[in-house]
């Protein structure tokens, strides 16, 4: 870490750290310790305030549309998988989106990357259930999210599900020196645990009346990433917390927002803008970038949700016109939205029907063009509603 980049930073200070490396021997360096977040809005220029206003408007429109959905949780599931794939890709864990859409959430996939992506889905669902139960943000939620996120991965060790007790670095490489990392976050220990509690208190406090929720969410995201409280998964948890922040601030009532695809497409700018706050106190650049991302993400999420809702209605109309009035045919359409790529065995389990009945249902919907075989397999074939998959796979 280039110490000269952070000397005199208005948002934090450098503290000495040291250790013993089996490869390099004893070492000494510094870590960046962020100051407590301010209780007032940082100095922002007019274009940034305009970006914040645009983000608020886009979030309000998304929230209005989500509240009108007959079953918002149904349409949330496929967009959550898209978020899971993208937020994991930002951290270097890549699984093709088609594989993520096809994965059975009850299975334990052999592919390590796919398992890690699905872990995010489970972690997000746990977070949304926590909020839905009226429970406040708390350290125990953060540690539980981390435990779920790293379950069965290389990071599933003694550090899993706890505030880290080791020093970590950002932007280094395996086997590299601490000094060569791009950023060295807060040292481990009781002070880090206290800072996490302070961060939770800041998010929960009444400064919401003084700081716009979009600005507050951007400030909170930077601070969480700067603390880097876990040995792994901080970026994914931090982006999930953006959505939770808007839920707790009552900006959103449904956790439909997906934020990571926009940031993934601008990965270098995302990390540079975050670093600019730590190094130079450049809140203006970061908040404008963050607000632009939230606005674009909210608009894109709303467009996809409304398109999925229209497809759902069109497919059910096609079923009625074909004279297929069985309730299970309609339920299969709903299932095709929640699980965009699926097998007959999955239909059997989810609809609670026999395999022959599930196979007949799928065949009938293929026959009228509602479904299509997704692969070229002869056995254990995969199916999908093409219009649903097209909405989820299209670029933002």
Describe the structure.
With 396 residues, the chain is mainly α. The chain folds into 2 domains: 302 residues, Orthogonal Bundle (Fic-like fold); 71 residues, Arc Repressor Mutant, subunit A (Orthogonal Bundle), CATH 1.10.10. Strands 3-5-4 form a 3-stranded antiparallel sheet. The protein has a two-stranded antiparallel sheet with strand order 1-2. The longest helix is centred in the last third of the chain and has 39 residues. It is globular. The mean pLDDT is 93.
What's this model, at a glance?
The protein contains 15 helices and 5 strands. The radius of gyration is 23 Å and the shape is globular. The chain has 2 domains: 302 residues, Fic-like fold (Orthogonal Bundle); 71 residues, Orthogonal Bundle (Arc Repressor Mutant, subunit A).
Would you report the number of β strands?
Answer: 5
Query: What is the name of the CATH architecture of the largest domain?
Result: Orthogonal Bundle
**Helix- and strand-based class?**
mainly alpha
End-to-end distance = 34 Å
In sequence order, what are the helices and strands, one letter per element?
A: EEHHHHHHHHHHHHEHHEEH
Determine the mean pLDDT.
93
**How much beta, percentage-wise?**
5-15%
Quote the CATH topology of the largest domain: Fic-like fold
Mind telling me the CATH class of the largest domain?
Answer: Mainly Alpha
Number of helices: 15
Low-confidence stretches: none
Total number of distinct structural domains: 2
Helix content: 55-70%
As a whole number of angstroms, the C-alpha radius of gyration is 23 Å
Q: Which strands sit side by side, in order, in the main sheet?
A: 3-5-4
Which of globular, elongated, flat, extended, rod-shaped describes the shape?
globular
| CATH superfamily membership of the largest domain | Fido-like domain
The main β sheet shows up as: 3 strands, antiparallel
């Amino acid at each position: 870490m280039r110490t000269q980049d952070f000397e005199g930073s208005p948002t934090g200070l450098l503290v000495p750290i040291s250790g013993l490396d089996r490869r390099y021997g004893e070492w000494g360096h510094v870590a960046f310790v962020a100051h407590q977040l301010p209780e007032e809005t940082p100095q922002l220029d007019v274009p940034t305030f305009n970006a914040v206003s645009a983000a608020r408007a886009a979030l309000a429109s998304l929230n209005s549309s989500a509240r009108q959905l007959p079953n918002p949780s149904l349409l949330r599931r496929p967009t959550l998988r898209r978020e899971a794939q993208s937020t994991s890709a930002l951290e270097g864990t890549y699984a093709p989106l088609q594989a993520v859409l096809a994965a059975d959430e009850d299975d334990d996939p052999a592919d390590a990357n796919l398992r890690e992506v699905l872990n995010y889905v489970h972690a997000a669902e746990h977070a949304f259930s926590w909020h839905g139960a009226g429970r406040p943000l708390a350290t125990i939620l953060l540690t539980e999210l981390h435990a779920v996120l790293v379950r069965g991965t290389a990071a599933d060790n003694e550090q899993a599900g706890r505030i880290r007790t080791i020093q970590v670095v950002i932007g280094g490489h395996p086997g590299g020196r601490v000094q060569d990392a791009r950023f060295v976050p807060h040292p481990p220990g009781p002070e880090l645990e206290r800072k996490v509690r302070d961060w939770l208190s800041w998010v929960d406090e009444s400064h919401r009346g003084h700081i716009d929720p979009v600005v507050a969410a951007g400030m909170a995201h930077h601070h969480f990433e700067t603390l880097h409280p876990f040995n792994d998964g901080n970026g994914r948890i931090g982006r999930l917390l953006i959505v939770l922040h808007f839920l707790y601030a009552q900006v959103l009532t449904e956790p439909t927002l997906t934020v990571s695809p926009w940031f993934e497409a601008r990965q270098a700018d995302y990390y540079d803008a975050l670093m600019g706050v730590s190094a130079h106190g450049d809140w203006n650049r970061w908040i404008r970038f963050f607000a632009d991302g939230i606005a674009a993400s909210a608009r894109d999420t709303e467009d996809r949700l409304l398109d999925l809702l229209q497809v759902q209605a069109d497919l059910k109309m096609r079923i009625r016109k074909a004279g297929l009035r069985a309730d299970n045919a309609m339920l299969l359409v709903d299932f095709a939205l929640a699980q965009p790529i699926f097998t007959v065995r999955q239909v059997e389990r989810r609809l609670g029907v026999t395999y022959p009945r599930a196979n007949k249902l799928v065949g009938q919907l293929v026959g009228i063009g509602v479904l299509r075989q997704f692969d070229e397999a002869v056995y254990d074939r995969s199916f999908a509603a093409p219009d649903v998959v097209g909405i989820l796979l299209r670029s933002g």
